[in-house]
Amino acid sequence: VLTWTMLFFWLVSIVLSYVLARLNMRPIMRSWRRQREFVANAAHELRTPLTIIQNKLELMLTHPNDKIVDQTEQITMSLGEVRRLNGLTSDLLLLARSDSDMTQINTEAVAMKPFLENVIQPYSEIAASQDKHFDSTIDLTQTLSIDRQRIHQLIVIFLDNALKYTTTGNDISFTAKQVGNRWILRVADTGIGLSDADKPHVFERFYRVDKSRSRQTGGNGLGLSIAKWIIDSHKGRVAITDNTPTGTIFTISFPMTKAK
Ligand code: ADP
């Protein structure tokens, strides 16, 4: 009986390991780990501004006779953190929805030239106010089928980053053109640049090359992961190259989806 029982369990273990191997659990485990990391990172990011707001409010409660000017400063700082929380929660919501395929891409016919001109219009003023130079070339005259709101968001992410990470340089350029059967967006800056070690990771959620500086500049490390989702959902590709003498060039290309 013992031999038969052992044989039975041995057979069961062989069948079980075969079934588990066939099921290929690795991607499932990886996705669970990613989800756990996402939740932990999100909680951490939410906690920092909440702690600051709590401290400011407690300070105001315990020092009710502080000068108006000091109180105003506490309120202004708290408001900055509330704005940060607002941006962070909408980014988190968008990414969580994209994971569960709840965020739809709503394509419509968009005349690209006026659309792009409108999106980038504020940037020459913003750049000028920071003593930087913004230059644009739009050679895309077609009407294409795109999600207007998402492509707007995508361009804003790259241009905001170009401005944020150009503390040492002062040139930002935006180009839109057609190359073969694809349309290209190119955002180049002469800023701090990205090392070869960092380039493959910048599209990961919460990845920041310099966490401390990123907090000062208002970054949460989610912008480029949202950009990547928008690029993927339009069947696009993105490449990062170095600018000369310094800086970064992001080149995004999409298939020409001409509007009918
Ligand atoms: P963040 O909100 O921190 O800017 P992103 O997801 O947009 O997050 O970018 C991730 C990280 O990639 C940034 O923290 C920064 O370190 C790096 N990065 C993004 N754009 C640039 C750029 N144009 N030049 C240099 N580094 C950049």
UniProtKB/TrEMBL annotation:
<dbReference type="GO" id="GO:0005886">
    <property type="term" value="C:plasma membrane"/>
</dbReference>
<keyword id="KW-0472">Membrane</keyword>
<dbReference type="GO" id="GO:0004721">
    <property type="term" value="F:phosphoprotein phosphatase activity"/>
</dbReference>
<keyword id="KW-0812">Transmembrane</keyword>
<keyword id="KW-0808">Transferase</keyword>
<feature type="transmembrane region" description="Helical">
    <location>
        <begin position="1"/>
        <end position="21"/>
    </location>
</feature>
<protein>
    <recommendedName>
        <fullName>histidine kinase</fullName>
        <ecNumber>2.7.13.3</ecNumber>
    </recommendedName>
</protein>
<keyword id="KW-0418">Kinase</keyword>
<keyword id="KW-0902">Two-component regulatory system</keyword>
<keyword id="KW-1133">Transmembrane helix</keyword>
<dbReference type="GO" id="GO:0016036">
    <property type="term" value="P:cellular response to phosphate starvation"/>
</dbReference>
<keyword id="KW-0597">Phosphoprotein</keyword>
<dbReference type="GO" id="GO:0000155">
    <property type="term" value="F:phosphorelay sensor kinase activity"/>
</dbReference>
<feature type="domain" description="Histidine kinase">
    <location>
        <begin position="41"/>
        <end position="258"/>
    </location>
</feature>
